[in-house]
Amino acid sequence: MAVLLVDIGNTALKAAWADGITLGKTFRYQGERMLEFIISLTSKSRPDIMVLSSVRSFSANQMKKLESQCDRLVVVEDIAGNYGLPEWITPDRVASIVASRYLFKGRSCTVFDFGSVLTVDVLGSDGTYCGGYVSPGCRTRFKALNRYSRQFPLLNAPEDVNEIGTDIVSTITSGVVSGIMFEIDGYLSRYPENISVFTGGDAIYFAKKRKNSIFVVCNLVLIGLALIALEYDKKD
Question: So where are the chain's domains?
Fold first, then answer.
């Protein structure tokens, strides 16, 4: 069975072909012609199932175009309730929760997704969704400081961060990175028995700065989409 997984986030699209939960080559696209990029993948091999997680909206005509590119289109946004999750949770978080329940079955988890937005989702040992938190991601914080203050330059997170800033650059980088680290510590201390799962673009960056045992699963969302595809294949 040919399965195409598509995850459209705030800044980029990630896609992968899957065999069960084994992911093949991962594709990344950053631009405005996302529909055309997806079609470029399906034109080479028509998927039996395409699973779409998107924080962006598609028009009715665009959805019809996507449906024509596969035998079955599964839109994660429409099925959150099937997994005991509230409808307001974004599709990528639905997928990461599905994956965490599978990978860490029987264990309570705190799932951090380090992207444009920093999301934290808490799962009970039986997979129950307890709730979560949302705050600006690392790059978003740097961009906000630059945009809303005439004095601050636009910076990126450095490999090494000073414990305390001593100039304009180090005060910004120390403040942003340390602020996120304090957030992480606060959530972990609130749920000390939980397994900590890091995913998203900055997951490895922040995992390296911690001494605690962290599970880094870079393709957690795609794994969740693959699990959703397997479930819908069994319904045939």
Answer: 3-85, 91-222
Neighbours of 228 (CB within 10 A): 24
Q: Tens digit of pLDDT for each residue in 29-57?
A: 998 899 999 999 999 889 999 999 998 88
Q: What angle separates helix 91-103 from helix 220-234, to the nearest 10 degrees? A: 80
Residue 200 pLDDT: 93
* CATH-assigned architecture of domain 3-85: 2-Layer Sandwich (3.30)
Distances (CA, A) of 105 to 145, 188, 215: 40, 19, 14
For the chain, the residue count is: 236
pLDDT in the model for residue 236: 59
For 91-222, the fitting CATH number among 3.30.420.40, 3.30.1330.60, 3.20.20.70, 3.40.630.30 is: 3.30.420.40
